[in-house]
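Hi everyone,

Forwarding the result from last night's run.
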Amino acid sequence: MSRSDATDVPARVLVVDDVQSMCEMLAERLPPLGFAVTWRTSGAEALATLAAEPFDAVVTDINMREMDGLELCGRIVAAHPEVPVMVITAFGNLEAAISAMRAGAYDFLTKPFDIKVLGLSLERAVQHRRLRAEVKRLQERVADAGRIGDLVGSSSAMQEVYSLITRVADTDSSVLVAGETGTGKELVARALHERSRRRGGPFVAINCAAVPETLLESELFGHARGAFTDARAARTGLVVQANGGTLFLDEIGELPLTLQPKLLRVLQERKVRPVGSDAEVPFDVRLVSATNADLESAIEEKRFREDLYFRINVITIPLPPLRARGGDVLLLAQHFLERAAASAGRALRGIAPEAARLLLAYPWPGNARELHNCMERAVALARYDQVTVADLPERIQQHRPSYVVVAADDPSELVSLEEMERRYILRVMEAVAGNKTMAAQILKMGRKTLYRKLERYGAE
């Protein structure tokens, strides 16, 4: 996060030094680095100014008459703990620097100093302040966060999801929830159920990828006594168990091709014939399915029936990945932190600003599930009253964003247009977790064209 990430308005810095020429010099040289400077020549004037106006940071000299910089720093930290204080001390005065840090100073510089070094330190201080403010705001908001059911998030992407859930919950139309693994597709299904007129009925869920193919038919449709070896008693299938409520078929894309025609017929007829039985049992359920697969590609590859796809996909609810939800990362992190801390009986007050910065920068390939595990781990390892960088997994601490280089000063680094296209297509595929339909939409490219290019790249 840079100064311009939060706002285009320059960060406001209050400079305090009883030498007027020093104040004037900083007031002249800091604005080109992105800071708006106000200066005062005494600690008392500085405190009065801080009480009347908001500032992003304070720069103060230690050696001043009447009130020195250490006393001023301590009083600012006490009255305005959110404002970082930079202390300037004489060269080699290590004892004064240590005293400044004990007084609550964010950082210190020794004279003489490079103005660019001061600018970088101020930039870090302002970023630190803004992250602290964001974490505090999220702590205040998390209990009242925009949510439906157990879904948490206030980003525009999640507001669209909430709107869709609200509009379709009380209908009987089949819904397909599409999203990457770990985004919370079952939470959407439960929210639909809880807001529907079927809320008094059962919510029955099954993961089609988690049950062996030989047992899945019996799990879904039931079986009669003696239908197969070990079938010592009749069993009611999940379709009928969900009667009057909602049936949630997770990972519908993993449903074996041999079972797809039977599921299609069951959904069309609203009757199910258990394995080994001649009798058909009527049922009344609302079907919600979920997939992390690209079903349109699966249809083209003859791995999923098109007629079943249209039967289950009357309404689609696309669930965004966590990396597309902006500040929801910290909102969810605080939510998971509070739950894990309560479960572990630990008193943690939040997330340190530098740890929050890393959480925002990480792409979260495992989505909300990965974030939940990360915060549970952090609570278990935390040594202080807040989560710090050291409590985060190493992969998050060491993450560096990847970029597609489109320009270079060194001609030897330049590549052909074809190579640039290859790199960009593969970067888009990485960003959408391999979803070819979504990648084709982003690239404004036909899916078949994309398939041919991926096959040529050896990335199929």
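The longest helix spans residues 115-141.

Cheers,
N.
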